[in-house]
Amino acid sequence: MKVLSGFDDTIAAIATPPGIGAIGVIRLSGRAAIPVADAIFKGKKLEKQPSHTVHFGHIIAPEDGTLIDEVVVTLFRSPRSYTGEDVVEISGHGSPYILQKILEAAVSAGARLATAGEYTQRAFLNGKLDLAQAEAVADLIAADSRAQQQAALQQLRGGFSGDLAKLREQLINFAALIELELDFSDEDVEFADRAQFSALITDLKSQVSTLLDSFRLGNVIKNGVRVAIIGKPNSGKSTLLNALLNEERAIVSDIAGTTRDTIEETLNIKGVLFRLIDTAGIREHTTDQIESIGMERSKQNAEKATILLHLVDVTDPDTSEIGWLKPFAEKTILVKNKIDREDSHQLSAGSDRISNPQPPILISAKNNLGIEVLRNRMYEKAVGEVIQPENSIVTNARHYDALSKMMESLNSIEAGMDRQLTGDLLSIDIRRTLHYLGEITGQVEVDRDILGTIFGKFCIGK
Question: What integer pLDDT is reported at residue 391 of this predicted model?
């Protein structure tokens, strides 16, 4: 891989989040990281200290020697650091003013301000991480659920990259034999066993197909699951939202049409985030303009949702369905509410559906009956299985696109072998497959703009 120029200077940034805290960290990285730190640090001479040591001292302004803070400095010498360069981390008191003054002192001493993601980009360019692992760093920082954390950790620890490396090694071995045949084309010899190569392509397609199929689950893990609660006015949608969240989030009233606008909240079920949307009640006719707008938004949210909870009041004698929900049957969970009521006469009317593979969920949102069963059904519908953290799961759209193109190339190789194409024609598609595989991990030359897009999503300081 070609290393891009422009990364031979020393950078500095505040690595901890904005705001007041007990401790804040300023990170330096680059050839002059240690001399820059020595210029503003009064304590032991860092240039003379071994790697992975911690030192107490003071930070002073290089211009006039003014005391800025008492700090602890941690030293990491190249190549045993996150970036592969000399790295110095200055831990000071978490005042935004103090941290800014330390940063200004480092810049005055010869460092420059780091750009977003520049530390991780340097780690990638210096071979400490491949590109897929670097992207996992951003996912790990952004993780706000156990499933997101586990998927990012698996990728960061090289699980996904390891799977891709095995695919790449198998392809390269046969590609080398095919290329060798081209050198002896005049002698009409075959070094690559075509039957064995055909079996390999079938196996590779199966592995890539598994990774592609995992993207549905990966998308759920990374972005969460949009769940719209749909039903007629006063069917108990807001009560259901409160019951699922186990808190009083939405206003509950016996007056139909209380909810005029959508309310969004987040629910964590078994490590997966569900983004609940309590929508305005939907009925066939209304003269209230505000209610009409709310109903229209309900329809829009139903279209965008991954799961629909169609809430039905079992005490309502009107058994007519909401007609426009029919196209969404595949993603709908029918939920029958108010089963605790003595007048729940409609419950028996729906008993013929209970024997179906996907029967309605019977609940009393008010009394918290059946809520755990509903949570389990939502998880099952969104995820389909228990998430195995040791399995490689594709969560990145860029990876999915490259794997899709790789599958197309594998199909072309397979078709070419069926037509008994010569090695020189097969090698074109083999190289193309290897290119798309290398795009994911950065084992081919990566365009500067692509890197800028990837690392620009990071926070400054990472």
Answer: 73
- According to the model, what pLDDT value does residue 154 have? 84
CA 71 – CA 91 distance, rounded (Å): 6
How confident is residue 105, by pLDDT bands cut at 50, 70 and 90? very high
Q: How far apart are the first and last CA of the chain?
A: 22
pLDDT (tens digit per residue) in 6-28: 567 999 999 998 888 899 999 99
Burial class of residue 61, CB neighbours in 10 A (0-12, 13-18, 19+): middle
Tell me how far apart the alpha carbons of residues 308 and 26 are, in angstroms, rounded to a whole number. Answer: 47
State yes or no: pLDDT of 183 exceeds 90.
Answer: no
Which residues does residue 301 pair with via DSSP β-bridges, in sequence order?
Answer: none
Tokens in use for 441? 């991990």
Compute the distance between CA of residue 132 and CA of residue 360 in angstroms, rounded to an integer. Answer: 42
Q: Maximum Cα–Cα distance for the chain, whole Å? A: 90
d(CA 307, CA 328): 9
- Number of helices (H) and strands (E), helices first, in the chain? 15, 13
pLDDT at 182: 58
Structure tokens at 286: 């209304």
What is the set of domains in the chain, with CATH numbers? 11-127 (3.30.1360.120), 140-220+396-441 (1.20.120.430), 228-379 (3.40.50.300)
pLDDT, one tens digit per residue, over 142-161 is 888 888 888 888 888 878 88
Residue 98's nearest CA partner among 71, 62, 72 is 71
- Determine how β-strand 332-337 pairs with β-strand 361-362: parallel
What is the C-alpha separation between 314 and 345, in angstroms, rounded?
7
Q: pTM above the 0.90 mark? A: no
Q: How far apart are CA 315 and CA 345, in angstroms?
A: 6
